[in-house]
Amino acid sequence: MTDDTPPLHPMEREQLQRESKLVVTVRSSQEFHDDVVAAIETLDHGKSSDPVPTLSFGSYDDLMDTLTPRVIDLIEAVRRHEPGSINEAARVVDRDVKNVHEELSRLAQLGIVYFEEDGQRKRPVVWFDEIVITLPFDPQSSGTATAAP
Could you tell me the pTM of the whole model? Predict the structure, then answer.
């Protein structure tokens, strides 16, 4: 099992540890781009930009495929039980180590968890206390479902 998730910089870890909430939403790539440009302009004008950490998916399907009930259970178990390793996390959720490793690695790539390394052991850490999922009902967004009359 190889993992190519880059470790967090200590400043990133400190910033995440100060946060208690992760906002998850669905936004188009254009909306995401516009938000990034606006944040950069704010910083360019010398103003502080301290937004709530947000994870944006390009479609509802992407969000639902990623944050399945099984994955949410894993996130909650890691947060509540604070396992000392990936193996211990797998024991807590009573699942295969390889599967849990793959899911935690994917969650780390998304910034939902990070790993603290202790020699060969990697301890998964969920840095927030709450996930807030916002689902905008914008008919122009990609990935929205259309109901037939």
Answer: 0.73
